[in-house]
Amino acid sequence: MLTLSQIVGQQRPIEALRRALATDRLPHALLFSGPRGVGKATTAQALALRLNCERPADLDGCGRCGSCTKIAGGQHPDVVVIAPDGAFIKVEQVRQLQEQLPYAPHEARWRLILVDGAEALHGSAANALLKSVEEPRPRNLFVLVTAAAHRVAPTLLSRCQRLRFTPLAAPALVTALRAHERGAAHGDDALQRVAVLAEGSVGHALELLDSAALAQAQQAADSLLRVAETESMLAVFQTVAELSGERAVLPQTLELLAFRLRDLLLLATGLGGSRLLASDTETALAQRAHALGSRALLHQLRAVQQAQAALAGNANAALTLEALVIALRGRATEQVR
Ligand SMILES: [Zn+2]
């Protein structure tokens, strides 16, 4: 289980918590908002660890004392998690929680109530929770977590101090994945590829790592680039026919392709690539970048973006890919002449 100082890429909310902890001015209700899978619930758990640890150090619980062990094992009676039961958080779930609130925490210094999916509170359930948040009791801390703050009841929102979590930049995402049990099992190459596709979300990145889709998308992106360099139209049609049957992985394929081209473009303009996709050596990439030149690369990148927009608009996959390969080919050949 992560501690607060181990949360990657969320300096602002973590800093706000550090200040609150240092001055002993924790509000009685917090709202963590931000995209799915960027560490909101993990941070709430780490906060529970820190608040109740028998030997805390700065931001962190020790991870070894009785309290830390119970929290890490999900067995602490004073760390209460409410999550949607189906599509909603039901009023019965809130009422059940409310029965405990008048009593002091069983054994903890702080009872932490984690509402994971606060946008799923509607009508009577939202009103019931609002009542509890409005009547704060000592040593109770509400942490509401949501990936859709605009759908949280405004009355509830207004009672909470809001901390905003942001998507992780690719390098921070790679760091977070390396530190994660499920991420550490994969090589750096895979982590870097997945970081490009995961839109800043550790959760999404982990799902991608566990799926075969990533390797499939990488293969597809490689064959598109390869076929764009051949002279044979027959090869183009064959490759396009194969790839257009795998429509589910096409968005990822095009995203990888766009990323590769952005990298080459940076290299061609002498800015240095992010090397996130540099499975070839950097020298080979740089040679390719200079051979193509920035104008051609920009044109290719635009062609990929057009293909992305077309597919998002539900265009025919085969026609879109054909047009893309021809755009990639045209410029590659022109450049050789
Ligand atoms: Zn501890």
Structure explained in plain terms:
- The structure is a single chain.
- The protein is α/β, with parallel strands linked by helices.
- The chain has 2 domains: 4-166, 3-Layer(aba) Sandwich (Rossmann fold); 212-336.
- Helices cover 56% and strands 8% of the residues.
- It has 16 helices and 5 strands.
- It has helices at residues 11-22, 40-52, 66-72, 91-100, 123-134, 154-158, 170-179, 181-184, 188-197, 202-210, 213-228, 233-244, 250-268, 282-292, 294-312, 317-336, and strands spanning 29-33, 79-82, 111-116, 140-146, 161-164.
- A 5-stranded parallel sheet has the order 2-3-4-1-5, sandwiched between helices.
- Strand 3, helix 5 (123-134) and strand 4 (140-146) form a beta-alpha-beta unit.
- Helix 2 runs antiparallel to helix 3 (66-72) and helix 11 (213-228) packs antiparallel against helix 12.
- The longest helix is centred in the last third of the chain and has 20 residues, at 317-336.
- The radius of gyration is 25 Å and the shape is elongated.
- The relative contact order is 0.10.
- The mean pLDDT is 89.
- The protein binds zinc ion (ZN).
Characteristic terms for this protein:
alpha/beta; Rossmann fold; 5-stranded parallel beta sheet; 56% helix; binds zinc ion
> In what range is the share of β-strand residues?
5-15%
Secondary structure category = alpha/beta
Extended strand count: 5
Radius of gyration: 25 Å
Low-pLDDT windows of residues: none
What ions, cofactors and ligands are bound?
zinc ion
Number of helices: 16
